[in-house]
Design a protein that fits this description.
261 residues; Rossmann fold; alpha/beta; 2 domains; seven-stranded mixed β-sheet
């Protein structure tokens, strides 16, 4: 099944502003890795969208950050957002065609935040990302977990079944209506999962964009720990550290042992 770069391009063209609260979101996605660990590193972010994550990585002191994406609307938004950052740039490239020589690599760190689970062939994309990691460097992933989402997953999947088949403007309208309907519950219910508890601190537009992001893609995988171990374990010369974050997602950091190809 194909992924959804065209639909995500619409999303990042529509929700193209970098909100200050998104720095905290990225910190929570990174778990124990933290933004401070980017200082001095040469970084490539795969599936950069409108440049939000590269922006905070560059601000945290990365030596350089290259954001790559395959959709022109996403890249246009990323260029605008990263224009003030002398240490950040963008390039058009599919996750399946990453070539370290063509992109100025290899890199100290390659990141893929919230993208791998939307790809039709995540194994192939991982192999290309891994080829771009320098020996002694690492690959950082953030992916949806099946654990922590089991109760809400049937509702999310039902909405996505319709949302992925509707014209994208109609999917956005559905996302807005769902956000309006869910807003009182988001604000008032005593959520036990960290991720959902954090939603009440976000702006309405941010939550709307998150719901839109959930229901627009053609592909969306929710992986178990065993799935993550299988995916990361297939990378030659890799040492994987997998962390359950926010009560509903995975952060994985895979170190490339010196001398590994």
């Amino acid at each position: 099944m194909q992924g959804s770069p065209d639909r995500f391009g619409y999303e990042w063209d529509t929700y193209c502003q970098i909100l200050p609260e998104s720095r905290g979101q990225l910190e929570r996605w990174l778990g124990s890795i933290g933004l401070e660990s980017f200082r001095g590193r040469r970084v490539m972010d795969v599936g950069c969208g409108m440049g939000r994550n590269p922006y905070w990585m560059a601000q945290a002191g990365a030596a350089s950050v290259l954001g790559v994406d395959v959709d022109d609307r996403s890249l246009d938004a990323a260029r605008r957002n990263l224009a003030p950052m002398a240490n950040a740039s963008v390039a058009k490239c599919s996750a399946y065609e990453l070539d370290p020589a063509a992109l100025g690599g290899p890199f100290d760190r390659v990141t893929c935040i919230g993208v791998l689970h939307h790809l039709g062939d995540p194994q192939q994309a991982l192999r290309r990302m891994w080829a771009c990691v320098a020996p002694g460097g690492d690959l950082v992933l953030w992916c949806y977990a099946r654990e922590g989402n089991r109760l809400l997953l049937p509702a999310i999947q039902a909405l996505r079944w319709f949302g992925a088949r509707l014209p994208i403007a109609m999917t956005r309208a559905v996302a807005m209506l769902v956000t309006i309907a869910a807003w009182p519950a988001i604000k008032l219910l005593p959520w036990r999962t960290s991720y959902y508890a954090q939603l009440k601190r976000l702006s309405f537009r941010n939550v709307e964009s998150i719901i839109f992001d959930q229901i627009l893609p053609r592909v969306s995988n929710y992986w178990t720990r065993a799935d993550m171990e299988r995916l990361t374990g297939a990378l030659p010369g890799g040492r994987a550290y997998i962390e359950f974050v926010q009560g509903n997602s995975w952060t994985a950091r895979i170190e490339k042992v010196d001398g590994a190809a």
